[in-house]
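Take one protein record:
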Amino acid sequence: MLAVLAAGLWFWAGVVAPGYDTAIALGVTWFVVVSLAVGRVGRHRPGLRTVLRGTFLAATAVTLAAFYWTSIRETTVDERLETGTPASRLAPQERPDVDDLLAPQP
């Protein structure tokens, strides 16, 4: 169960999805599809029902906690920003010549 969930999540959200939002949508869709499959298997094999549901719910809880920890929890950025002097404040001899910057380079 864990291998199927992990492989499917990696494939759909990591390989197939072209962007962040699509990866989330495909990951959720994968878990819904596996949930439906677990329900069907559990209906036909009552002995496996508790084990499959428990494993699925535990894996879902761990996945949601990991998603929260890596995607939603951080709201601030603590980075050092490099700043410089604006070109408008430079003395004329220190200003870069725009024509030279746009000229073809050798």
